[in-house]
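ugh ok fine here u go
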Amino acid sequence: MGLRILKTPVRAPQANAFCERVIGTIRRECLDFMIPMSEWHVRPILREWVGHYNRGRSHASLGPGIPEGSIVAPVVRESNGRSVPARCRVAAMPILSGLHHEYRLERHAA
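structure:
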């Protein structure tokens, strides 16, 4: 598989923290819910999940934001109590066969 061992630098306890965080997130949010059969099965799963992670999933350090930004402006609560603008609806797009979902506003015919 082309793997090689990288040793952690001396006196650098945080050097491995980023890798541990990403690997833990991948395991908890993706691979704990799937049974990959081979390396070639894991690759498309991770490709789809990484796209979702960077484009459609909010990150705690960014508040409600996502890393690559949103193409939809934030929804502001209107005076009549609606949170979704008129003639729009919330559409859900399933990720990884419904394990996760990305939500967006779509215009619908009146």
